[in-house]
Amino acid sequence: MITLRKHVFLCYTLQVVWCVLVVAEEWTVTIPNQISGLMGSCVLIPCSFTHPSAYIPTNVAWYQYSKLPGKYPVVFSRTKPGDIVEHYSGRTELVGRASDGDCSLMINGMILEHNGEDIYPWVDEVSKSVFAFFQWRVTLEVTDTAPRPQLSVSEVQREGGNITVSCAVLHTCPSSPPSLSFGDQRGVVQGYHTEEIQGRWRVLSTISFVARAEDHEKVVACNVTHPGGQTAAGEVVLDVSYAPRSVSVTGGSTVVQVGTNLSLSCVSDANPPASSYLWYLLRDGLVMPLNHSTETAAVTDLHPDENAFHCTAINPLGRSKPSCSFVVTAEYKPSILANSSCFYHTGQVICRCQARARPRAKVLWMVDEGPLFPSSDPTTSPQNHTVMDIWAAEGTYENVSVTCLVNNTHGYDKLLLSVFVKAPPTNVSISQLPARPLEGEKVTLSCLGHSHLPISSYRWYRVFGEQSVLLREDSGSLSLSVTRDVGRFRCSALNEMGECSSDTMAVNVEYAPAILPLSFCSGNDGQVRCECVVDSHPVAKIIWTPWRIQDNQTHNITDLLNWRILRSILIGPKVDDMGDVLCNSTNEHGSAFLKLPFIAGETSAQRSLFYGGVGGALLLVLSFASFLFWRFYSTKRRDCRVALEEVELKGALQVIHHDPTDCPGSPEARVHWI
What we know:
It is a single chain. The protein is mostly beta strands. The chain has two helices and 54 strands. Strands 19, 21, 22, 24, 25 and 26 form a six-stranded mixed sheet that branches. Strands 27, 28, 29, 32, 33 and 36 form a six-stranded mixed sheet that branches. It has a five-stranded mixed sheet with strand order 2-10-9-5-6, with no helix packed on it. Strand 39 and strand 40 form a beta hairpin.
């Protein structure tokens, strides 16, 4: 009986062991051995398990491993949340479902107390005799220093090409990944977030931009900010290749003695550095290549005038633009400039002495042949190598004698300065460029004047009879598109002492002849009278192609109606076989001709009416032209009279209508009769 019981117990034991082994073989847990987290950030611990097919898991809990018997500190539990230890309370959550075999745990807000602790999952209340879950543990590692990001940059970095900088960092908190930024670097930014290895995720950010030469050796930084506030940064230095630029010539002093040997260098900014060079010399407006191809050039033939040197640098990527001028000039003794003078005003003399000199000159003064004394505080201008000093004295008189003496190591110059009384501008006038524009072209009027206090501003007026309209201020010039009736103008120059105005000036405009509708031919009592009225500037030459005339016929000639309109009158006997009467007018800008309408056979009344109309129209034209003529020359304060004369012609005759000395500046008018 005892033997039978022993056999039964043995069979039961073997059956239990067999069942345990079978069940244990179907339970597995996949979990990392160790995982790192950043203090203040979160950690997602990936965890999965398998179970017997007949078993349906419902709950997963996490525990802290303890070597003390009976101690099972709870890290996470849905069924017993009050048992969770304090430094995990409120920080843990299960992100997977037990029914799916997912036991992943999220720990938020990692603290240093978590560092070094081993934790493990447990499914339901499976007996440890069935499966010892505590044997599959993960060790927590907490750090308070964020890792530096990993940066990389495109291998080819060339000016004008695209450069891409990549910045990547690993983390353990996929729900709140760290943010990446490139500071103030310009470019197109793209971001990527991928899972790398178990429990690790990778954040990648790239920035792409077009490379510039200025980007060479530029530091591109990548800044990382984690959810807990920890930051880290990394950087990469760009190596951009580009053709030579910023080329300049250096060679020490730019002021040397004639015959001095110079050693010049061509300095450039290039990557890779320039490997060859071109040298040029600009002298008297001519560009001459120099026989040098290296970075330095020896010059032995300096001229006493300015010598401007240029160079061009070349590397495998291209060549630079020519450098700016490097000007070398020989030294010379002082030369006092023409603007040096003295002003006398209300008992005070102010003298200004300005001189050009190389090297810098010293200014001395002498008053009324007294001893020389030095200047007080001269002003120098290195740009144009001038020195300027001012001497002033109260209680002096207008005819004081002031001498300025300027010297340097090469010699001296002295000048007895003229004393001028302060006054408003004088001799204000208008100049016109070009002097003889054609109608439709642009002209520039310049306001000129003499002033012993500098002119501070200008005013331009257009004159309409007695009225003047202000056009603009400040500028000393006025640009116009001119027509034959552009009008008259005047300008004023101002300084601190007052204002002076120019005479009114009519803009000179030239144009080809135009025969006016007043021109005609008429017959009366056996006589023929033809009039040709021409508007032109300069005054045109008029040639008649008349009817057949006899040697003893008489012609009357009338000159200018005003400064641009010319009338020519031809009178002769009427014949039966008269041809066409043509008026031909010509000046240097063109010509015009007109077959004049001929009025023949009219009655006395008709002739009276016709001549009355023509005479009235001509009288109006003459009156208006006379008014313009009087206004123009009265404004100019000149007495310009043109004598009209009646002459008897025999054969071909050229008549000069006036003496050019009667009206200076007026063009000489000529009429040709054939």
